[in-house]
From TrEMBL:
Gene3D superfamilies: Umud Fragment, subunit A. This is Signal peptidase i. The keyword Transmembrane applies. Keywords: Membrane, Transmembrane, Transmembrane helix. It is found in: Membrane. The lineage of its organism: Archaea, Methanobacteriati, Methanobacteriota, Stenosarchaea group, Halobacteria. One of its GO terms (cellular component) is membrane. Residues 20-110 form the Peptidase S26 domain. The chain crosses the membrane at residues 20-38. It comes from the Archaea. It holds the Pfam family Peptidase_S26. CDD domains: S26_SPase_I. GO terms for molecular function: serine-type endopeptidase activity.
């Protein structure tokens, strides 16, 4: 019997190539469904607890995909305009955004309402989402609004991101994605690889 082992691909090479092909296929499928890359983000903080926990992996999509009926022209449904629409047990969309001056990871928080440039948004703010003792727009950080954008807040954070100086109102072009589904604990793998666990 002739030995034809030289013409065959070793089993471990074949298995490795099949595994890589499967990973590429799943990645391409997720990209096709979500419209963004990467289609998943690992959550680094507890600012969205108890709805999204530290170490969760969140599947995200382009802001214009899977929008609710009350979505604005950018595909975002805010807490204020939710009209029964909810994500992650709360009204409105959870967005992943990155202000240009920020270093590090993007922020994943809920879009609360939209403001126009120069708008006094003090009267629209929930009293418990601004610092105690703030009585008017002039005392509130980022009020009047320095630019048009979303006022955002983590579900587990007392104040709006804009009231505590974390970010200016979030311009639609800063929104990288919209959170869709969470996969508990899977993000720890990504955080461990990145040295953030």
């Amino acid at each position: 019997m002739a030995d034809d082992s030289g013409s065959r691909i070793p089993v471990y090479v074949r298995d490795t190539l099949q595994t890589l092909a499967a990973v590429v296929f799943v990645g391409l499928l997720l990209f096709a469904l979500t419209g963004v890359w990467p289609p998943m983000v690992a959550v680094e903080s507890g600012s969205m607890e108890p709805h999204i926990d530290t170490g969760d992996m969140v599947v995200v999509s382009d802001a214009g995909r899977f929008s609710g009926a009350s979505a604005d022209e950018h595909g975002i449904v805010t807490y204020a305009e939710s009209d029964g629409y909810s994500r992650f047990s709360g009204k409105g969309d959870v967005i992943v955004y990155m202000p240009p001056e920020r270093t590090g990871s993007p922020i994943i928080h809920r879009a609360r309402f939209y403001v126009e440039s120069g708008e006094n948004w003090y009267d629209r703010a929930a009293p418990d989402a601004i610092a105690p003792g703030i009585d008017n727009c002039d005392e509130l950080t980022n009020c009047p609004a320095p630019n048009a954008g979303y006022i955002t807040k983590g579900d587990n954070v007392r104040q709006y991101d804009q009231a505590r100086g974390l970010a200016r109102p979030v311009k639609p072009e800063w929104v990288r994605a919209k959170a869709q589904v969470r996969v508990p604990f899977l993000g720890w793998v990504r955080l461990a690889i990145a040295g953030k666990a």
